[in-house]
Amino acid sequence: MTTTRPASRPRLRDTVAHKSDEPRASSLRDARVIKSDAALRQALLQLLESKALDQITVREIAMVAGIHYATFFRHHPSKEALLDHIAAEQIARLVELTLPVLDQIDSQAAFLALFSYVEDHRALWTALLTGGAGSTMREELLRISQRLAVERAPEITWLPSDLATIATVSVIVETLAWWLAQPPGAWPIAQMAGILRRLVNLAGMDAERG
Question: Burial level of 22, CB count in 10 A (0-12/13-18/19+)?
């Protein structure tokens, strides 16, 4: 007598549609994209420590980042676009360091912190402020300063608050750009912090006279 064995029940994993793996695959792809983009940013920052942007090639950036040359262009159309991406992050940090000045909270300490940060990343900021990304940096800083001005109550009756904020940020940025164009060490951080504090304070004294 032949006994018919009941069909075996399908395993749970066999009942799950293959498309259920798609979110996981997508997450892995997203993680790889984030990792590659972070590697590219770090590679450019590393290269900027020893040479100017116009001396750096996309192939060098890809090699230092440990990714394929063609992969670079899946993230950024050019090295300048990558620098712009980094610039956006650096602008946020610059604004964070500048806020105590705009708020008149220990401006000397704030200027020291500002110059110290830029000095620690001198090659990068030289590229950002005096290189091809300079105009982009200024435009973005002015855009942010105008937005911040809206949130600030005017302290000078005759001077619009947005103009006061733009003027202060412009003085800070142009002073930094001038300083970075000088030979390293020619103008010490403490001295530059004092100069910039006086420049900003001069505007305040003129306002009082008005």
Answer: exposed
Compute mean pLDDT per 10 residues along the chain, 210 residues long, and list them.
52 43 60 86 84 88 95 92 81 73 67 89 80 68 69 61 75 90 92 90 52
Cα dihedral 174, 180, 186, 192, rounded to 10, equals 40
Q: Can you tell me which residue has the tokens 């002073």?
A: 175
CATH number at residue 34: 1.10.10.60
CA angle 29, 74, 136 (to 5 degrees): 120
For the chain, first and last CA: distance in Å?
Answer: 113
Question: What is the three-state SS of 57-113?
Answer: CHHHHHHHHCCCHHHHHHHCCCHHHHHHHHHHHHHHHHHHHHHHHHCCCCHHHHHHH
Dig out the tokens for 118 from the structure.
């830029």
Q: Are residues 67 and 116 in the same domain?
A: no
- Residue 186 has what DSSP assignment? S
The amino acid at 44:
L
Q: Which domain holds residue 49?
A: 18-76
111 Cα distance to chain centroid: 19
